[in-house]
Amino acid sequence: MREPLRRARYLSVFFVVLACVLLAAAGARLCWLQVFRQLEPDSVAAWRPIPVREVGRRGDLIDARGGTIATSLREVSLFVGSRDVVEEVAALHRRPREELADRLARVAGVDPAATLAKFREAKTANQWLCLARGVRDPAVVADLRALRRDPLFRGLTFETRWVRDHSRGALFAPLLGWMGWQPTPADAGPDVPRDGESVGVAGLEETCEPALKPTRGRRFVQRDAIARDMIDPELLPIPWRDGRSVRLTLDPIAQAAVETALDGAMEEFDPEWAQVLVLDPRTSDLLAVGQRPTPPDPTPELRSIPAGATAARRAAIEAENAETLRLHQLLMVHRVYPPGSAFKPLMLGLVLDRGAATPDAIVDCGSGSAKFGSRTIHDVHPKACLDMAGVLIESSNIGMTKFVQALVPTDSKRGAKAFQPVLDHLDALGFGRRVGGFAGEEDGMVPPLKLMDRNYSLASLAFGQQIQVTALQMAAACASLANGGIWRAPRLLDAVEGDDGEWVELPPLPGGERAVFTPATAAVLRGMLARVVDEGGTRRWKPKGWSMAGKTGTAQDEQAHHLSISSYWCFAPAAAPRFLVMTVLHHPRRGRFAADNAGKVAGGLMGELLERFSIPQDRPEELASGPDPARAPHPLVATPLAGGERDVVASRTVGEGR
User: Does the chain have fewer CB atoms within 10 Å around its N or its C terminus?
Assistant: First the structure.
């Protein structure tokens, strides 16, 4: 009996001594680690200061009345590694993946079946999965971040970024442009992150990049065991700055009228493309810019060419991408066209300024046909003799040719210096150069001096052929006739946000204002252009109660002679213009002349603008004569053309209807 008791006592003593030895060893080890080998907190990964990159908010684009056209929104996406959320925790009787799918469905509206499918279809042991993308609602973001409080969901990771939002959809897409990802330059400094940045790559987003672009910065945090950021006040951040907002000259009231007019033009006249500009001729401020067709999305979706693609496949993808980019072109600066007879007043201004003819001069128009050397020029409306105003009213190519040829001696040879004043005049009006400062803006085309001669180049320039212009160039040049002969560069950028949040007006560009006509010449031409509207084919569309001046142009496409371009520019009231409307329709399928289609679009739009902006009437006596024809429907009778599939005039020797 005593022997078992003694053995039990020895065993108890042994275990007690063993426990004491183990405790002493553990204590010695802890003492060694904590006292003799103590590490500084900054050298421990869990407490090391971690730099967090911060990017400011990109500036907004604001219209003239304070409405937002483009802004930046904070967007949060939720990611997790496929093994960071296990399928089942038996000890806790929980199935974390199913719980996460259910909570995401309730919080963010994510399909739970899709969430579970992502875990099942993960191809690697720890594949990175996106569970929710592009969440913008702050309340939803807060609920998603609260999921990390559960120890089973600590592997959730959030990615925050700024995304550009065009509040009016694709309406202004060609004008605003889009954002793209730019890699970090190889010669960037050591403090610059190497992950690239989002920048404007087209349109106003690119033009205004210096002002809109935010600066980058960093803040330093320490993180606890569950990766919560704890800011240390001793660690000073590197500040970042939001981008500056830019105010545009676009007026939403004018823009709404333009969009309505374009919709009507596409439905009634069915052109391949159409564009309308509205300027304030006193300042050349762009009040509205519209075009059709418009792209389906603000940002072009370009397809990549897969490796090993056949030549046919590559060509098909490239053609599809080219068509996508074509829809995103800003027509007013990216498309050129021959202005046709709409160009005639600008050439007559040079004739008057140089004293080559007087307003009461009369020319023989040959009853509709005249020879200039070996070339025959025709008029649509045959007349015998016309004065200068009559040449504009009847849109006589022959009369214009004779007036313009008076600028140079009759014996001038091809390329003679006598033609240089004509080219200088076109240069002063902004033709052959960029006038708007837009990315990718076309220069247009003006014949060089070496190709200038009397009977072809100069004669063609007289009625708007052998020259290619953009709608913006044409609108700015015509505005000079409306404001006393002063050419002003068109303005779209009005002001930029200052450091104090106040708007700072942008100064005019150097060389952005110059006299191109004398005030007397501009006044004479305004009177003639008012007669063109009152006595010509566009009188049907003039808004009653206001005077209006303008000129139509029907020209053939110089690349495809069977196509025509109808254009019309007009301003009102004629004596003190407030609006200039520029309308261009490319190959309208209905309406023979510009007076039938472009004239109707511009005339109706002008009436809407004058009414919406409450411009005082200068011809109130017209209101007693009946309803405004610019508002009433005018059915057009299509005239079939021999050998053509569309009802247009397409001849290099014709002018256009009055």
Answer: N
Non-local (6+) Cβ contacts of 266 within 8 A are: 274, 292, 293
Cα–Cα distance between 14 and 23 in angstroms, integer? 14
Type of residue at 109: G
Higher pLDDT, 115 or 53: 115
**Cα 34 from Cα 44, distance rounded (Å):** 13
Taking each helix axis from N to C terminus, what angle separates 420-428 and 344-353, rounded to the nearest 10 degrees? 120
Tell me the per-residue pLDDT of 405-424, one tens digit each, with 9 for 90 and over. 999 999 899 999 999 999 99
Q: Which helix (H) or strand (E) holds 279?
A: strand 273-280
Q: Where are the beta strands (DSSP E) in 406-539?
A: 486-488, 493-497, 503-505, 513-515
Confidence of residue 186 (pLDDT cuts 50, 70, 90): low
602: nearest Cα among 572, 637, 643, 575:
572
8 A C-beta contact, residue 222 and residue 232: yes
Q: Return d(Cα 18, Cα 484) in angstroms, integer.
A: 109
The one-letter code for the residue type at 16 is: V
Q: Give first-to-last CA distance, the chain, whole Å.
A: 135
Rounded CA-CA distance 172/517 in Å is: 34
Helices (H), 151-227: 173-176, 203-207, 209-212
Residue spans of beta strands (DSSP E) within 82-215: 128-135, 157-166, 179-182, 197-200
Q: Please enumerate, as own/partner, the contacts of 186-195 that have beta carbons within 8 Å and a separation of 24 or more.
A: 192/216, 193/53
pLDDT in tens, 47-68: 556 666 677 889 999 999 999 9
* Residue 655 CA neighbour count, 13 Å, CB half: 32
CB of 301 closer than 8 Å to CB of 295: no
Helix (H) or strand (E) holding 541: none
DSSP strands (E only) in 367-433: 369-372, 375-378, 385-387
Place of tokens 């079939």: 640
DSSP 450: G
Dist. CA 550–CA 401, nearest whole Å:
20
pLDDT tens-place string over residues 395-407: 999 999 999 999 9
Residue 421: cis peptide before it, omega within 30 degrees of 0? no
Q: Please report the domains of the chain, with CATH numbers, ordered by start residue.
A: 50-184+193-248 (3.90.1310.10), 255-305+336-625 (3.40.710.10)
Peptide bond into 507 cis (omega under 30): no
Closest CA to 597 of 547, 541, 555, 545: 541
For residue 438 the two structure tokens come to 């837009």
Pairing of β 61-62 and β 246-248: parallel
Q: What is the pLDDT of residue 264?
A: 94
Indicate left, alpha or beta for 373 from its phi (over 0: left) and psi (-120 to 50: alpha): left
CA 603 to chain centre: 26
Average pLDDT over residues 634-645: 32
Average pLDDT for residues 637-642, to the nearest whole number? 30
CA distance to 239, 355, 425, 652, per residue, from 348 (Å): 60, 11, 11, 21
3-class DSSP state for residue 213? coil
Instruction: For CA atoms 268, 272, 278, 281, give the dihedral sign.
Output: negative
Coil, strand or helix at 615: coil
Strands of 293-365 (E only): list them. 362-364
Residue pair 604/630 in contact (Cβ under 8 Å)? The answer is yes
Q: How many residues does the chain have?
A: 658
